[in-house]
């Protein structure tokens, strides 16, 4: 075997080495932590015996309520983000013409700001003597300041504010690819603007709606910083309870079991959303939209 | 079927005038072709009729009804789009049924009509297929079926065959002609392809780069009697000679610098043609007789050298270099397998034509 063909053989046989980083990364940072959590949730005590008693401890009203609260927060945020983001994405992608990149840029700038600065920015707006209350008092719409901070209203406002981009981007991407001639063809065939929207635009943007809804739902489900910062500490979320078990109570088994349980709930509901929204786009939308 | 009448239409985009003072009548039941080079505004004109755009000024009449500002979905006009614009999330049936469903027609009627129309365009085997499973030609037929099922007064076709290969295009052209004569719907067919326009239409309008209509007429009128150098050159192939007209009682002639005097016949309607006025002579390549020896019976003769031979199959194009450095194109039918008189490169040839076969043009 001469030198050249040896080199060729080596190159052929060992090129897979280049893909190793891509394999090692999820192994070390995804599979190992997941396995650890699973292990911790079923094995506890000094003698390693598999038991599910940590899971049975979780079956009570308090844990159910926290999981339901996170579900509602995630789902509510997703729905409201969709309502807010769809018109914006539609306007940017279809109506804004050559200014669309500028609009998109302006929308993205606040996202690069530090999260805490964004939250404190909202404090000025929402607090008892904040900008919104001052404005409404000056205009005369209210007689005494509204309680906008430290409750669910503030939580949802900030959730929407922080998660709208995750809805906007997939929607914009899909609407930008929408062939304008399809909308023209629809009205040419006798459809009113509303009919065109319901029969063409909405079904064709369903993949974007689905991606955005799932993204916001999953992220919103795990959110605990916003409820902690502007919810006035009244609302325990899944994320905050997990950190409470691990870092305050230091019950690794319980924390791991709750993590696994809430993860399963999240997967189940994500799958439901995926299926429900999928029914809309069951028909072939993969080809050129 | 109704007529379309455009009255003094102007349209500009971003300050650029696309259509200038267009007045045009498209008779009811006509197969009307709108022919022009890319950028001549013919698609814009079509979009005005369909309602996708509004004219800056002027009126559009469908029959006697002013539809200039009527919403798109209220016009009884349907369009076959250049890229078909089929709805990708619907199958063939749903695409074709789209217009009828909007009209709230009973489901069984819709089914009957859709199947009937799909049979007419030879798609009965593909009724429930997804659009992505169809070939370009089949998609074209779906687009056609989707438009004509609504029984429009006027059907607009925007370069509908541009994406198809030559054989398929020729077949679709014949099918379009058959379809039109069966439906009697007014067809307005936009194209930049003069072959398509000449083939399908019974009337056509030629648009120039300034967004104006140069000439309206039947395909034969346009081809044989163009009214400008632009039309003569755009529709078909021609040779243009520039010269000075000489008129006298018994004969008219044109003198071309470096070539000499040639007899022409000046039609009575050409009022611009005065003695001494500048004129253009359009001479179609197939109307020229070519011979290696001088011929009898022709009053007009040119001599030149063959500089290029382009073989087209049924005919051959010879480029003949003249004494004034002009190159004239000549088409000769390839009538025989073994022609006696083979013309080759650098051969000296004589060109002849009848004076009635040239067209005199003012500009």
User: How far apart lie the N and C ends of chain B?
Assistant: 37 Å
Broad CATH class of chain A: Mainly Alpha
CATH fold type of the largest domain in chain B: Rossmann fold
Taken as a percent bin, the fraction of beta residues of chain B is: 25-35%
CATH fold node name of chain A? MetI-like fold
So what's the oligomer here? heterodimer
The secondary-structure element order of chain B is: EEEHEEEHHHEHEHEEHHEEEEEEEEEE
Stretches of chain A where pLDDT is under 50 for at least 5 consecutive residues are 283-289
The CATH H-level superfamily of chain A is MetI-like
Q: Total strand count of chain A, please?
A: 2
Morphology of chain A: globular
Radius of gyration of chain B: 25 Å
DSSP helical segment count of chain B: 8
Largest sheet of chain A: 2 strands, antiparallel
Q: Architecture of chain A, CATH level 2?
A: Orthogonal Bundle
Report the span from N to C terminus of chain A.
Answer: 54 Å
Strand order of the largest sheet of chain A: 1-2
Radius of gyration of chain A: 25 Å
Tally of separate domains of chain B: 2
Point out poorly predicted stretches of chain B: none
Task: Explain the overall architecture.
Residues 283-289 of chain A have low confidence and may be disordered. Chain A has helices at 3-14, 20-42, 53-58, 61-95, 100-108, 115-126, 131-139, 152-176, 180-188, 193-221, 225-230, 238-249, 252-280, and strands at residues 43-44, 49-50. Chain A is globular. A two-stranded antiparallel ribbon of chain A has the order 1-2. In chain A, helix 4 (61-95) crosses helix 10, helix 8 crosses helix 10 and helix 9 (180-188) crosses helix 10 (193-221). Helix content of chain A is 75%, strand content 1%. With 289 residues, chain A is mainly α. Chain A has one domain: MetI-like fold (Orthogonal Bundle), CATH 1.10.3720. Chain B is of the alpha+beta class and 363 residues long. Chain B folds into two domains: 4-233, Rossmann fold, CATH 3.40.50; 237-361, Beta Barrel (OB fold (Dihydrolipoamide Acetyltransferase, E2P)). Chain B has eight helices and 20 strands. In chain B, the strands form four sheets. Chain B has a six-stranded mixed sheet with strand order 6-7-8-3-9-10, sandwiched between helices. Chain B is globular, with a radius of gyration of 25 Å. The two termini of chain B are 37 Å apart. Chain A binds chain B through residues 179, 181-182, 184-192, 195, 199-200, 203-204, 281, 283-289, and chain B through 50-52, 71-73, 77-79, 81, 83, 85-91, 98-99, 102-103, 130-132, 146-147, 150.
């Amino acid at each position: 075997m001469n030198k050249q063909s040896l080199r060729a053989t080596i190159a052929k046989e060992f090129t897979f080495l280049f893909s190793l980083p891509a394999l090692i990364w999820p192994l070390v940072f995804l599979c190992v932590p997941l396995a650890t959590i699973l292990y911790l949730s079923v094995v506890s005590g000094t003698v390693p015996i598999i038991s599910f008693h940590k899971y049975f401890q979780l079956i009570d009203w308090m844990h159910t309520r926290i999981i339901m609260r996170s579900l509602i927060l995630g789902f509510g945020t997703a729905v409201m983000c969709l309502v807010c983001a769809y018109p914006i994405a539609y306007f940017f992608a279809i109506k804004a013409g050559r200014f669309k990149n500028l609009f998109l840029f302006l929308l993205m700038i606040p996202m690069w700001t530090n999260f805490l600065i964004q939250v404190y920015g909202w404090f000025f707006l929402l607090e008892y003597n904040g900008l919104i209350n001052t404005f409404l008092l000056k205009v005369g719409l209210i007689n005494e300041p509204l309680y906008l901070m430290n409750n669910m209203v503030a939580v949802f406002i900030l959730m929407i504010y922080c998660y709208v981009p995750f809805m906007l981007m997939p929607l914009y991407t899909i609407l930008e690819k929408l062939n304008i001639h399809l909308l023209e063809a629809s009205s040419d065939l006798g459809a009113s603007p509303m009919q065109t929207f319901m029969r063409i635009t909405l079904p064709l943007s369903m993949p974007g709606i689905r991606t955005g809804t799932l993204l916001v739902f999953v992220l919103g489900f795990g959110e605990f910083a916003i409820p902690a910062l502007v919810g006035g500490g009244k609302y325990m979320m899944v994320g905050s309870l997990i950190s409470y078990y691990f870092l305050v109570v230091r019950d690794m088994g319980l924390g791991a079991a709750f993590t696994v349980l809430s993860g399963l709930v999240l997967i189940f509901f994500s799958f439901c959303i995926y299926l429900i929204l999928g029914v809309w786009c069951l028909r072939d939308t993969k080809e050129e939209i | 079927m109704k007529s379309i009448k455009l009255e003094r239409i102007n349209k500009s985009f971003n300050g650029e005038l696309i259509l200038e003072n267009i007045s045009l009548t498209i008779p009811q039941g006509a197969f009307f072709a709108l022919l022009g080079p890319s950028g001549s505004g013919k698609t814009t004109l079509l979009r005005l009729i369909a309602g996708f755009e509004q004219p800056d000024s002027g009126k559009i009449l469908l029959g006697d009804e002013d539809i200039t500002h009527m919403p798109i979905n209220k016009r009884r006009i349907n369009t076959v789009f250049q890229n078909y614009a089929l709805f990708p999330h619907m199958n063939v049936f749903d695409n074709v049924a789209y217009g009828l469903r909007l009209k709230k027609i009973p489901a069984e009627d819709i089914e009957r009509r859709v199947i009937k129309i799909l049979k007419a365009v030879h798609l009965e085997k593909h009724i429930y297929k997804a659009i992505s499973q169809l070939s370009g030609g089949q998609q074209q037929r779906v687009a056609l079926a989707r438009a004509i099922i609504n029984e429009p007064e006027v059907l607009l076709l925007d370069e509908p065959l541009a994406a198809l290969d030559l054989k398929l295009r020729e077949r679709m052209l014949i099918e379009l002609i058959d379809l039109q004569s069966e439906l009697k719907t007014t067809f307005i067919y936009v194209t930049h392809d003069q072959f398509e326009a000449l083939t399908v239409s019974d009337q056509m309008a030629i648009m120039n780069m300034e967004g104006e209509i140069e000439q309206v007429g039947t395909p034969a009128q346009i081809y044989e009697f163009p009214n400008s150098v632009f039309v003569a050159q755009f529709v078909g192939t021609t040779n243009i000679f520039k010269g000075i007209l000489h008129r006298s009682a018994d004969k008219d002639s044109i003198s071309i610098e470096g070539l000499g005097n040639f007899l022409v016949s000046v039609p009575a309607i050409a009022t611009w043609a005065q003695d001494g006025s500048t004129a253009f002579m359009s001479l179609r390549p197939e109307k020229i007789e070519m011979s290696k020896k001088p011929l009898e019976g022709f009053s007009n003769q040119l001599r030149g050298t063959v500089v290029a031979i382009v073989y087209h199959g049924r005919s051959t194009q010879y480029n003949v270099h003249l004494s004034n450095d002009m190159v004239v194109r000549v088409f000769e039918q390839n009538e025989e397998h073994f022609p006696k008189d083979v013309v080759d490169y650098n051969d000296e040839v004589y060109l002849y034509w009848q004076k009635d076969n040239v067209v005199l043009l003012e500009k």
